[in-house]
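ok trying this again, last paste got cut off
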Amino acid sequence: MFQYEKKLQYPVNIKNPNPKYAQIIISQFGGPDGELAASLRYLSQRFSMPYPELKGLLTDIGTEELAHLEMIGAIVYQLTRNLTIDEIKKSGFDTYFVDHTTGVYPVAASGAPFTAAYLQSKGDVITDLHEDLAAEQKARTTYDNILRLVDDPDVREPIKFLREREIVHYQRFGEGLRLATDKMNEKNFYAFNPSFDVQCNKNCFRRDNMKK
């Protein structure tokens, strides 16, 4: 069960609206490497994780990603509030405005709407953790690109905080991968999925004995 605290994980207080910034930052709301994809990825993968430590890790990080989604939504909202029609036209925000007005909608900077194709839940501990490691680095790169394009300190500071959390998550998933490989007793752990193959191996053993 989740508990909601009525505050952002890091404060967002943007004084100067800027729809151009909003158009690029919204990619971390609904884009391919954004916070919505991250939270759904980790909170889906946790069910099939064979070890309680990894279930806890994915639950913790998946929940924090929801907090990051809220931060990005607040940034986009504050960057687009009280815009005039002239400002919307001049900034190129009109293509977004015609579909969503100034509502916060899960979409990439390219204009592509969110899709579950951005994430994977394979049910294999090694596969899923490698996907998670890659996801954190792709998100970090996206935040790097945003920081290259944005010079407003009110926007940069929360973005820098989010970038730092991607690095921490990457480190924690690396620890999770080491934990998983230490627990696996097969010489080639790529050939064994403990959440699936333990029961299969028992059944196969019974079948082999019956044949004898």
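PB: full thing came through this time. The radius of gyration is 21 Å.
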